[in-house]
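# step 3/5: fold
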Amino acid sequence: MKDTRVVVQENRSSFELVNEARHTIEKVKVDGCLITGDQERCDWLLVAKCNPDVAYFVELKGCDLKKAVSQLGATLNATKDRYKSTNRKCYAVTTRVPRQGPSVQMLARAFYKEHSVPLEVKNIRASVKVAC
């Protein structure tokens, strides 16, 4: 799809990818489609077809930030071969977690150290521009 805005949402949380240059965006439902079974996984994967491609891993969550981070990490591990040549970014969109408190910053640093992928935590609604 080449829409200027690609939105994924669940309950009160939503993530919007702003695509002003109209790059092709691949929208993948991870939970139950890309990854099935009992394995942990995030909700969505949005891939902007650029050079190189940019993959946005998205978990929409209520208040359990640690669970969201765990699901994002598990998805990165499960898809590392498939998306190894892409720039990867992770977003946890929660409804009740302080956006930039010290515990959130420590969690994001630990996530980057383990996966070499940046993690951003947003409250309720996130809007991100395609970074190609």
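# step 4/5: annotate
The mean pLDDT is 91.
# step 5/5: archive (pending)
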